[in-house]
Structure prediction request, 181 residues.
Amino acid sequence: MTERNPIKLFHHMAIDVSDMEKSIAFYRKLFGYKLTERHEAGEVEAIPVELAFLRLRNSNHHDMVLSHTPGKKYRARNAQDNIEGTTLFHHLAWQCHDRDAWLEMQAQVKEMDIEIIRGPVVHSAYDPRGEGSWGENESFYVLDPDGHRLEIFCDMASIDEDGTFVSYEGERIEEAKVAEV
Ligand SMILES: [Fe+2]
Prediction:
């Protein structure tokens, strides 16, 4: 038996949106997604939803999918507690190249008049700037037009072979270990 996990990576998320035009515009402008293809509901008999395939990396057919069900009565998710009464995902996250790029995204959000609903915050129990939360990164959160919670972050720690956290600056944080190596 191979030691290798047969799964290569988590590839994409398909999220339901109430207004396709609005959401395509939002994701294109904020994150720089490109539209690969867009299809009407029922073009293929087994697919009764409208779909837009978006790509962040040019070589990918898609890394994000927006779906819309014609005739469905959509209700916006609660901005502050978007998991209330649902089993939908809690948030989606995008990693910036570095802190400067992350600050650029903050400026972009401001320019688009999008409210930052949480942060900027340092998710850390080890960094003196940290608020005691997890993941070792710097982050802020916004909502998309339907109230889907989006996280934009930089500088996440990585994990050494022995399970020790390594800061984005390459320093081992000896007191910080993963639960399972
Ligand atoms: Fe997150």
